[in-house]
Amino acid sequence: MVSLNRLSVEDPQDVSPLLPEAAEPKVTTPVEHEREAMPRKDFFISRTENAVLSVLLLAGCYSAILIPAYFPLRKFAITDDQYSKREEVLNLSAWLLSGRCQRRWCVERLKQLPCSSALTDIPVFLRREGSTACWDAPPPLGLHGSQEHLTRALAFLPQVGLPETLRRDGGCRRCVVVGSGGVLHGSRLGLHIDQYDVIIRMNNAPVLGYERDAGSRTTIRLIYPEGASGSADEYNKTSIVALVVFKTLDLDWLTSVISKQPLGFWSKLWFWKEVVDDIPLRAENFRILHPEIIRKTGEVLQKYSQKQGRSIVPTLGAGAVVMALQLCDHVSLAGFGYNMQHPHAPLHYYETVRMAAMKAQVSPPRTFGYCMQLVPPPRTFFFCYNLVGSGEKYSQ
């Protein structure tokens, strides 16, 4: 059958069409036309996908900056110029050790500097009596609000104050304060450092594996809980571990370490990083640094600071130098300072982090520049000669 409207051929025995029927023309309305012109919904990504993509892009940008600094492609090598400086430092160090030790050499020269006479005759470690002058300020500049915690910590210390080995016996003594700066890397000062009478280190700066550059002995290691080394072997050749109290909870941590009674779960949450539960030393090897060291150091630095009216909390390195002045007649510094001219040089002598990492930080880290503020900068970058014997000869 042939129709005027449709052309089809039908089989009488089969109702299905042999040819497809012609589609009727579709009339598009203005509303449907606007919908077709609009972009499809699947063109946009969801909020979740957008957040994931943003995080990946941000991580990629940070990786491009930080990976070359923390994982450099090429290993730092000592150049000829640095080799000559190393030899100069080794010769100077040998000369200092071979020279005659003079009683109160550093203290007498320190008194010649303005505002620095207050850094002498300060008690080094807390005792059970005579510490009432510390209650006018909270830690670390005092012990206000920590009386009960201090009493409990001192009760677990069988010995307080200076041990017999550190008390002045009329002889002349030399101290060296060993910092963690990358300038110590490759210095080969280890044998020289071990010859000093008193060797002071800070926090978790390692000795094992770095004896050639940093020495092998430790007389006093200044620490706070978050900075204590978790390696038991690092305390093998350590005479004293002295706690620097930055908060009241630090005293509870010391009590826990000595008494072998772990801190509670809620107490540990107040530390900004995980702290060690055990230090393999006897109770008589622990001390508490007198807060007068930190307070008076900060007061002197305040007078040299451009920001007046706010208390300055000195770094552990600055406090270690002032402590060394109370114990020794000659004070030397090793491992302080940064070699900013070489981005691939190590930031610390024991890490793979490079100097370039400092540029990636929002604000520069706290560095030991305080001794540089007291006198003109030293000639080399391994020692600070305002406190080292015969500084006039080697200072510019």
UniProtKB/TrEMBL annotation:
TM region positions: 50-71
GO cellular component terms listed in the entry, alphabetical order: Golgi membrane
EC number in record: 2.4.3.9
MF annotations from Gene Ontology: lactosylceramide alpha-2,3-sialyltransferase activity
Region ranges (Disordered): 1-32
Organism superkingdom: Eukaryota
Membrane topology designation: Single-pass type II membrane protein
Location in or out of the cell: Golgi apparatus membrane
Catalysed reaction equations from the record: a beta-D-Gal-(1<->1')-ceramide + CMP-N-acetyl-beta-neuraminate = N-acetyl-alpha-neuraminosyl-(2->3)-beta-D-galactosyl-(1<->1')-ceramide + CMP + H(+); ganglioside GA2 (d18:1(4E)/18:0) + CMP-N-acetyl-beta-neuraminate = ganglioside GM2 (d18:1(4E)/18:0) + CMP + H(+); a beta-D-Gal-(1->4)-beta-D-Glc-(1<->1)-Cer(d18:1(4E)) + CMP-N-acetyl-beta-neuraminate = a ganglioside GM3 (d18:1(4E)) + CMP + H(+); ganglioside GA1 (d18:1(4E)/18:0) + CMP-N-acetyl-beta-neuraminate = ganglioside GM1 (d18:1(4E)/18:0) + CMP + H(+)
Enzyme's top EC category: transferase
Chief location of this protein within or outside the cell: Golgi
One of the GO biological process terms: lipid metabolic process
InterPro entries per the UniProt record, alphabetical: Glyco_trans_29, Glycosyltransferase_29, GT29-like_sf
Alphabetic keyword roster: Disulfide bond, Glycoprotein, Glycosyltransferase, Golgi apparatus, Lipid metabolism, Membrane, Signal-anchor, Transferase, Transmembrane, Transmembrane helix
PANTHER family for this protein: SIALYLTRANSFERASE, ST3 BETA-GALACTOSIDE ALPHA-2,3-SIALYLTRANSFERASE 5, LIKE
Protein family according to the UniProt entry: Belongs to the glycosyltransferase 29 family.
Function: Transfers the sialyl group (N-acetyl-alpha-neuraminyl or NeuAc) from CMP-NeuAc to the non-reducing terminal galactose (Gal) of glycosphingolipids forming gangliosides (important molecules involved in the regulation of multiple cellular processes, including cell proliferation and differentiation, apoptosis, embryogenesis, development, and oncogenesis).
Record protein name field: Lactosylceramide alpha-2,3-sialyltransferase
Source organism: Hippocampus comes (Tiger tail seahorse)
Phylogenetic classification of the source organism: Eukaryota, Metazoa, Chordata, Craniata, Vertebrata
